[in-house]
Amino acid sequence: MSHALSAAPRPPAWRPGSACNGSCRHASACEATRGGDPALLGVRGVVERVGPFSDGDRLVQPGSPHRGYFSVLSGMAKTTDANRVVAFHLPGELFALEPTRAQVHERSISAIGKTWFCRFPRDAMSDLCGDNDDIARHLAALRRREHRLLKASHDDGDALTRVSGFLFDLRCRRRHIEGESAFVPLPMSREDIGSYLGMSAATVTRMLGRLRAAGILTIRADGIDVSDEASLVPRQDSPGSKPSRSFIS
Amino acid sequence: MSHALSAAPRPPAWRPGSACNGSCRHASACEATRGGDPALLGVRGVVERVGPFSDGDRLVQPGSPHRGYFSVLSGMAKTTDANRVVAFHLPGELFALEPTRAQVHERSISAIGKTWFCRFPRDAMSDLCGDNDDIARHLAALRRREHRLLKASHDDGDALTRVSGFLFDLRCRRRHIEGESAFVPLPMSREDIGSYLGMSAATVTRMLGRLRAAGILTIRADGIDVSDEASLVPRQDSPGSKPSRSFIS
DNA sequence: CGACTCTTTGATCCTGATCAACACCGGTGG
DNA sequence: CCACCGGTGTTGATCAGGATCAAAGAGTCG
User: Which nucleotide is closest, CA of B158 to its C1'?
Assistant: First the structure.
């Protein structure tokens, strides 16, 4: 599942002009077109499919010129900042929207397993935004969300809470793609999960084992089957009490 | 040093109309007038001195109407949010600037030890801001700083680093008031410091003890004497490496 | 002086990191 | 076909930081 770290982004098989016709498997979950919203269909005209990338290949790296936005067409991706994983990207999710004025990417984005991307050229998207307020607003909203997610820290609560919260989040996001399914693929390494959640890979394994022992999920080679979703969601016993810090006064 | 938690803000001895003549001991460190900047002298005409508050008395609490800004005239104060200390306020420092549109205070502010405040009525300050761009800009800058400080988390590094960083910060801020002085008063409880730094009071005591054992400071009943300031500042061995999380890929 | 709170200090416990050993798996080359 | 190999996942042992609990000083204020 892993590759030697590629020193530079490997030139993938670009498919310019392969505009989207809305027939891809995740069309209804596509964030770029908001699941096929008629107001946003113009976006389909500018998208290019790019791939395949294999595990570890970098799509962009810090300093590389920002010439487009991306979404996952199939597979998975991660964004890393200073060697720390700050986001995972599932099929349909749009990312690499940097601040509007940004000329270069600020973080690395790399494939997890064999992955195809959709690329939305920045110039074409800018033109679309100028012509279509809906697209502009939609993109701005997604950009704000990305900014929020990249800033969010996952250092709250203990290791078990963080792992189960992470799985719950993944499961919720997958629902948009696959609908109801107990299976949640985890193609990223335990190390990656640990980096994202701020714990060691060994602890990730142990917390998964604890959730398995509790009958909440079963562990497969390529992911997990969630059998008791209700137990994954962080249970907040009494409202307004966060035991992440010591109490005072 | 401590009081039973007062359920409601105790009405202090208000001194309306006691405009500032710049003769107070911390005039040169007064943030409201930027140390007596001629462009900001108008502020002195609207300030009122209020006090004395004794230890634990609340100046404002969440939900109380926002009718003024405050600074410490003498003593010290703390801002608490959900029972956590999020800021300490030293003489001369302006605070309780909430967002411009805020109608009510969002956090508690209470006195630490016997404390006098300067109160800057909101309406009068608004008028001043309308008449004087310097005052408006100055207030906006201070408001941004307050927002940043209240959001900042002190959960980076280990306990010793956080305590010494805290003391270093206090010492730097006191320099504006007292000039060069080895003494740094700590009128707040160890519990308060621990709440602010995200650790237990016992750990605060232990870390202080460790700094004392290292010859960096001596401990007094009401504070500390810093004898080796250079050792207080967080030493970053190699730039760009933060061992606060595990590393990846 | 006495009650009270705060600080200090010791003992213990818990969480999660770290390290090491081992199983597993896919790929590679004989 | 099979031995080998590097990377990954799992699991156990150990360790360190800091929380928690308890008990003993030390002020402090009435």
Answer: D17
Do the Cβ atoms of B125 and B13 come closer than 8 Å? Answer: no
pLDDT per residue, tens digit, chain A (249 aa), is 444 334 344 444 445 556 677 778 787 788 878 877 777 787 687 888 887 888 999 999 999 999 999 999 999 999 999 999 999 999 999 999 987 888 899 999 999 999 999 999 998 888 888 888 888 889 999 999 999 999 888 878 899 999 999 999 999 999 988 888 899 999 999 999 999 999 999 999 999 999 999 999 999 989 999 999 888 886 654 433 334 333 322
Give B14-151's CATH code, choosing from 2.60.120.10, 3.40.50.300, 3.40.718.10, 3.90.950.10: 2.60.120.10
Rounded Cα distance, A73 and A30, in Å: 9
Closest by Cα among A76, A38, A98 to A174: A76
DSSP string, B81-101: ETTEEEEEE-BT-EE----TT
CA distance A21 to A24: 8
Chain C bases near protein CB atoms (7 A cut-off) = 5-11, 15-20, 25
Note whether B14-151 and B159-231 share their fold: no
Nucleotide nearest to A221 (CA to C1'): D9
Omega cis (within 30) before B52? yes
Q: By CA distance, what is A5's nearest residue in B?
A: B249
Question: Which residues, at least 6 apart from B106, have a Cβ–Cβ distance to it below 8 Å?
Answer: B62, B81, B98
Protein-to-nucleotide distance from the CA of A66 to the C1' of D27, whole angstroms: 64
